Structures are given as C-alpha cells and as structure tokens.
Amino acid sequence: xxxxxxxxxxxxxxxxxxxxxxxxxxxxxxxxxxxxxxxxxxxxxxxxxxxxxxxxxxxxxxxxxxxxxxxxxxxxxxxxxxxxxxxxxxxxxxxxxxxxxxxxxxxxxxxxxxxxxxxxxxxxxxxxxxxxxxxxxxxxxxxxxxxxxxxxxxxxxxxxxxxxxxxxxxxxxxxxxxxxxxxxxxxxxxxxxxxxxxxxxxxxxxxxxxxxxxxxxxxxxxxxxxxxxxxxxxxxxxxxxxxxxxxxxxxxxxxxxxxxxxxxxxxxxxxxxxxxxxxxxxxxxxxxxxxxxxxxxxxxxxxxxxxxxxxxxxxxxxxxxxxxxxxxxxxxxxxxxxxxxxxxxxxxxxxxxxxxxxxxxxxxxxxxxxxx
Length: 372
What we know:
The protein has 14 helices and four strands. The chain has helices spanning 3-18, 24-32, 58-70, 81-90, 96-125, 130-155, 163-169, 177-204, 217-237, 246-265, 269-274, 279-294, 307-329, 331-353, and strands at residues 41-43, 172-174, 300-301, 358-359. The strands form two sheets. A two-stranded parallel sheet has the order 1-2. A two-stranded antiparallel ribbon has the order 3-4.
C-alpha cells in the first residue's frame, strides 16, 4: 500500500465516523443512498424475457431446475443458540471503527441481496415464459432468505431495516435486459468468490471470526454460484449476446464490477484486517476466482495482473477519497472539485478499459462446480 492510499484510507474512516449508523433510521438512510459504489435497485424491459429460449441447453437447464427444487439450503438460514452467544461475546470487543465498517458491510450486502429479490420477483410477475418464471421464483426465494438473514444481524445492533419501506422509497435504475444478464451474472459469481474467500480464510483462522454470520458463508455462497450458473446458461443458449459489440459490453461490465468492488473494499480496510486479510490481496484473489469461473460464458477476461490495470485500480481509490473530501468541504469549491475528480475517474476508467484483454474459446459444457 502506498502512502497516498494509506492517507486516503484514514479519510474514509473519518467519513464513516462522521456518518455513523446509530439507529434503524440511519441504516435505512444508508441503504437508500444511490452512488456509483452503492448497490442499486433495477427495473428492465420485461417482455424480452419472454423471448428467451433455453432449448440449446435444455439438459443442463433441467438439471439445474431440479437442484433449485431440491432446495438444499431450505433450513440453512436459521440462527442457532451458538449464534446469539457469539454475538454477545464478540460484539463488545469491536472497536468503533470496525463496528461501523461491519455495519456498512451488512447494510450494503442486505441492499444488494434485496435488490436481486425485487428484480427477480418483478420479472416473474411480468412475463409468461415458463422456464424463466420458474427460475425467477427460485432465485427470488433465495435472495429473500439472504436479505432476511442479514437483517437479523442488523437487528442485533438495533438497526433493522424496514424492507417494505426500502422497496417503496429507493430509486430504481433502468437496465436493458442484456445488461441485466451481464451484471447479474457477474454480481452473483463475484459474490460467491467474495464469500468463499472469506469463509476459507476464517476456516483456517477461526480466531479471526469476529461475527457468527461468517460460519454461514459456504452454503450461502453456493446459492450465489447457482444463480450465476442460471444466467450463464441463458447467455450460452443465446450466443448473439456474446459476440460482436457485446464483447465490449462484457468487457465494460467486468471492469465496472471489479473497480467498484476494489474502491469500496479499500474504504473498509479494518474489516479485512480483522479477518487477517489485506484488502488488495483479498480483492485480487476474488478477481482471480471470478475470472476463472467466467471462462464458462465470457469470451474475454481482464488481465488483472497488467501493471496499468493495477495502477488504475489504486488510482481510483485515491480519486474516490479525494472526491469524498471535496464533498465534505461543500460550497462552490467543493462542487467544482467533485466535478474535477469525476473527470479524473472517467479518464482512469477509460485507460483501464483499453488495457488488452485475454480471449479464449468457450467450453462445450457450460456449467462448472463451486470447487474453490
């Protein structure tokens, strides 16, 4: 970590402490925020989902539907007696800074999971395609469980969020259906990679597990993995989504998802340090796993080890922190500086977009196993 990023990290901590979440109203207000880095709620053009044809991957699709119907996690998201005991034992030991970073992690994760639940339910209600309706029913079921389980942990801090109110009040962003395919596939697969990396680390170092929710991550992230498999099959069954100009869109969404994660994670360094992880090393391990998985469907992948790519990621962290300082400053000068930093971020992202990518042939079999 260079000195600039270390200093910016301190700025992020100041921002977290100045905007502490101390009540359910604060938690809801944090979840309602729409920024480049915060999870959003989405809507789309539903009629396009009626045109999806999964016949080219019918055998793999039916096998996956049988897995969903089997619902091997139907009893997983239940808190045991040990959960409450660990909460009471471990939470008082958290520093105020780590407590705020963990709460921010819970709110962000809940918002993301609930976003999926809402989107999948809306698609289900507005289409007639039986294959996709069945899929969306199962996926909404899973995401609802995830969001509810996260909300229970927020309630341990007396910070529970009114999910119905969040659904009514948060702004929605329109995405074309193909953008939904790319972004949702990536978010589900990177969600798997994030959770399994944390689970494996704490499996090796149980003394670093500062909250019981992490014990649930292995089976939890297998839900995320299966959700990603669903969109992989949809895209492979409709190969026009993976050719021509769509290769550029794929490239864009991979970079956007990776960059967003990198900047957001570097604003929560204590969260990773408490687990014995370093934010940079953790993120690149997640990128590595996600890139390996995505070879099942995406014909291109980012060169995450390219010096320009790595320098760009660090530059975005620096710009994000500078933008936060300008926002906190306020007034005309603060507004002008925010504009300057937005231009800097756009330029950095554009340079990263043109870093050469790796291309490869897609495998004959689409589905892969969660073996990481």
